[in-house]
Specification:
Length: about 140
């Protein structure tokens, strides 16, 4: 099994069994982001308490890349301090802007390194970033910076 195939399996598995999908009752803020070029949509609820990402939940429709990426994002960021979450988001953005030249820091990104290959395809980068940009937007509205 080659690496690309393994990564496709990881993405498909998150698409079929998404984490943190289904909007929480309580939230500090809700944002809605769309990716018109593909038709992906996400609504994201975020709660921050004591400098920590206490809850990320989301719902959406779209392609397997956008939905799997939102699943990994929510799993990775929930429970992290705001500073640590920002570090992970920064690492993912850098990976997706790398045009296939980076493999991603597995310590920070865990399963999300599976999107390294997607960074070669500009049209799909927006799909992979949708959930992460929604998180950034929601966090900015709560925390500022
Ligand atoms: Zn898409």
């Amino acid at each position: 099994m080659n690496l690309d195939h393994m990564y496709q399996e990881v993405i498909l598995d998150h698409y079929k069994h998404p984490e943190h999908k289904g909007l929480s009752e309580e939230k500090d803020i809700q944002v809605h982001h769309i990716n018109p070029s593909c038709g992906d949509e996400i609504t994201l609820n975020l709660s921050v308490a004591d400098g920590r990402v206490s809850e990320v939940s989301w719902d959406g429709i779209g392609c397997s890349i956008s939905m799997a990426s939102a699943s990994m994002m929510s799993g990775l960021l929930t429970g992290k301090s705001v500073a640590d979450a920002n570090e992970v988001v920064g690492a993912f953005l850098a990976l997706m802007q790398s045009k296939g030249t980076m493999t991603g820091d597995e310590n920070l990104l865990e399963d999300a390194v599976a999107f390294a290959g997607v960074s070669k395809f500009p049209a799909r980068v927006k799909c992979a970033l949708l959930g992460w940009m929604a998180f950034k937007d929601a966090e900015f509205q709560i925390v500022g910076k």
